[in-house]
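Retro notes, item 3 of 5
We never archived the inputs for the pyridoxal-5'-phosphate complex last cycle. Fixing that now. Sequence and ligand:
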Amino acid sequence: MTAERESRVPLFGLAAEHRSLAPEIEAAIAGVFAHRGFVGGPEIARLEGDFAALCGTEWAVGCGSGSDAVWLALAALEVGPGDEVICPAFTFFATASAIERLGARPVFADIDRATWNLTPEIARAAAADCTRLRAVLPVDLFGRCADAAGFEALGSELGVPIVSDAAQAVSATDGDGRTAGSRALLGCFSLYPTKNLGACGEAGMVVGHDPALRDRVRALGQHGHVGDGVYEWVGINSRLDALQAAIVRAKLPHLEKWTLARRENASFYDAAFAAAGATTTDRPTADPDWRLPLRTPLPPEAPARHVYHHYAVRVPAERRDALRRHLAECGVESGVYYARGLHQQPCFAHRVRGPLPETESACAETLVLPIHAQLSAGQRQRVVDAVLGFFDA
Ligand SMILES: *Cc1c(COP(=O)(O)O)cnc(C)c1O
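Structure as it came back at the time:
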């Protein structure tokens, strides 16, 4: 207990996770060294099979990273120069850089304040201004699915494919209980070490149902090679590393337990903060009539399942940095995702058409707290005490 009191509460649980799994991970690595199929070894097809089963898709194709997964999905749909792709401005950089690197234009759309996600309604309004719309790219931000059914309908209405960036949402489910990434034409995942299911290096996955798209994603990740020395497209070199596949496969049997632990931690925070006067993110952040200016993430209604890649709260912008400093003094790590909207990034200055108020307020008000499966009961109580201590609640 004393040691725990003195130690920091980390934002990610990698150290504890790897301590607990060391024998399994070492055996997985030894297995790859035994056959030395570092690129193309049997672990890759096995993980792809397991991952497709987890997602409820026909297939999964491994690749070098989540960033490449988004690029490969868009390239497989032949998104190219001059095309427009709608995506949220409040997301990780890679969602939009994939569009830009294909020569296409990311059309930055705003988000819904309660869920931090792009909605079909917002995307429909953005589509009205497009002349060469080729795809819509919603993101399941922080581990909460965007409205997959709504996007499916929007895709049919607009006659464009939906590509899902589910990098943060492995094993989350949507409002119909279907798995993140599985309802889009192509779903993209990251297995970056700090994601909910992480490798010990870079790795990613694309999932889908159409076998022709599977073959194209696979070929594009091998320079566009379709066999017999023939290159149909100019692709990239982005294959899943066998060591990473073996490690992720060793972790996969633990994923559900970790997801339940994250969800349990979230319920604990929700209840503790609500008892002190917090309300949820569907309410305005600043309102002097409410007891505590802290907004906890609005949980989706079952069967939707939030997997809490991040437990994000909103606090008044002018107090966020002071809260972060206070948490750091209490030994509690926190994080800001994302400090700027993508429409405010210098590299996208030529793409911007107008202010995105919800994205900008989210950038100023959002703070993420430790939620990982390795948090102890004492650590999560320390997080609550430190947050409430700041507000004097
Ligand atoms: C992490 C992430 C990616 C990129 O994944 P990498 O594996 O880091 O390349 C893409 N989109 C989102 C929303 C992410 O969170």
